[in-house]
Amino acid sequence: MRIGVLASQGAFAEHIDILHQLEVEALPVRLPSELRGLDGLIIPGGESTSISRLMLDYDLVSEIKNLAKNGLPILGTCAGMILLAKEILDSDVEPLGLMDITVKRNAFGRQKESFETELTIPLLGEKPFPGIFIRAPVIEQVNSEVECK
Q1: Which of 34, 83, 93, 124 lies deepest, with the highest CB count within 10 Å?
Q2: Which 3 state secondary structure label does DSSP give 13?
């Protein structure tokens, strides 16, 4: 199995590392030609405005849309999910429109509102668990024929 990870900006290295740990062939994707022969694509978290601009600059948008229409599975995490959405509230970012959802960027505040705290989670044992709360998107609406399980 060959999984491409969009490597324009954001957490692409972490996604590639975890796929390698799972013994999956993971390849960084920066150019349209690097999308050929993939069994799936991951659009990682990062900054959705930057990723969107870089996808446009490197002519990746139309190729990703074509591959999705032909059945290529695509996973978006954080900024990747934002870019897969049909609609992004309060944003100038042009989404790919591949997932029939409406999302809101920075739904929990801007970067300056991000914080870390220790959490007590009995299921994980007595040692406090580091909770990291960052700006993140929210799916505001799941539209028409989307099925959630």
Answers
A1: 83
A2: helix
Check: CB of residue 38 under 8 Å from CB of residue 66. no
Give dist(CA 84, CA 23) in Å, integer.
26
Domain presence at residue 34? yes
Q: Is the pTM of this model over 0.90?
A: no
Q: What is the mean pLDDT of each run of 10 residues along the chain (149 residues)?
A: 95 96 98 97 94 95 97 96 94 92 85 86 91 84 80
- Other C-beta atoms lying within 10 Å of the C-beta of residue 116: 10
Give the dihedral of Cα atoms 70, 55, 47, 92; nearest 10 deg: -90
Number of domains observed in the structure of the chain: 1
Residue 80's CATH number = 3.40.50.880
- Please list the alpha-helical segments (H only) found in 7-149: 12-21, 48-57, 61-69, 79-84
